[in-house]
Specification:
mainly alpha, 2% strand
Length: 260
């Protein structure tokens, strides 16, 4: 029992602590996530070989360990399961472990791992502390990640579910081309959906994709704000150089690098 408690405390420090070692650990996990997403996109047009199966198994084990550790140290486990990046991790694990047993390809779900970049509370805290540029543009970053993950998932799904676009590198390029032309509602007509499933997918891409793109544009062009909870009223976003809360007038102590 004592050993388990000690191990749990170690994991809790690694995942939630503020020490240099804890921060390096979380950044290492993010580097792993980036590598995983890049690996999925790079191997999408390739035939599955024993080597790729082994790599998929290693990735699944790392994600399973990460998921189990975060679940173990979570204080509210039922609430934990309803977080966006936790649900995405479960879907990634399903795609890695059970993909060979499904009638359709689940590879596209692995792109969901990228959602951890924008929805991990402690990673966002690290980035706010270590990078002033991120702190001043956090919502641009979050909107960009959400849009990029959606784009990656859609490209992978189109490639997996619509063999008419071709296979291999050419098929992947066609999937990117079809996704972007559909998302922008350009519709050149050289690649068109020819089944009910493809048509419904195109509708989802247009509706969801345009919504995410509008959110990204709004985040890019709106005045810069920094996240900081007002101690009096709880207002979360404030001007970079704010001294008083615009909502209640309360005193703010926002840590910034100053205004040039």
């Amino acid at each position: 029992t004592g050993m388990l408690a000690s191990y749990k405390n170690l994991l809790n420090r690694l995942y939630t602590g503020t020490s240099a070692g804890s921060v390096r650990f979380r950044y290492t996990l993010i580097a792993f996530d980036l590598a995983t997403v890049a690996y999925v996109m790079a191997t999408l047009p390739l035939e599955v070989t024993p080597v790729l199966r082994l790599i998929n198994l290693v990735i699944a084990l790392v994600i399973l360990f990460d998921f189990s550790a975060r679940l173990w140290i979570s204080g509210e486990r039922w609430r934990y399961f309803f977080q966006v990046y936790v649900i995405s991790d479960l879907l990634v694990l399903i795609s890695l472990v059970f993909n060979p047993y499904f009638a359709f390809d689940l590879t596209f779900l692995r792109i969901l791992r990228g959602l951890r970049f924008a929805h991990s509370e402690y990673l966002l805290r690290d980035l706010r502390r270590d990078f002033s540029v991120f702190k001043e543009n956090e919502y641009v970053f979050v909107a960009s990640v959400n849009f990029a993950v959606f784009l990656g998932i859609t490209v992978a799904a189109v490639y997996s579910f619509f063999p008419a676009i071709g296979r291999g590198a050419d098929g992947l390029v066609n999937a990117v081309y079809f996704t972007v032309t559909t998302l922008t509602t350009t519709g050149y007509g050289d690649i068109v959906p020819n089944s009910n499933g493809a048509k419904l997918t195109s509708v989802v891409v247009m509706v969801v994709g345009v919504t995410l793109f509008v959110n990204l544009a709004r985040a890019v062009f709106r005045p810069k704000k920094v996240p900081h909870d007002c101690p009096a009223c709880g207002l979360h976003l404030h001007d970079v150089d704010a001294v008083h809360c615009k909502h209640c007038g309360g005193m703010l102590r926002i840590k910034t690098g100053g205004i040039s």
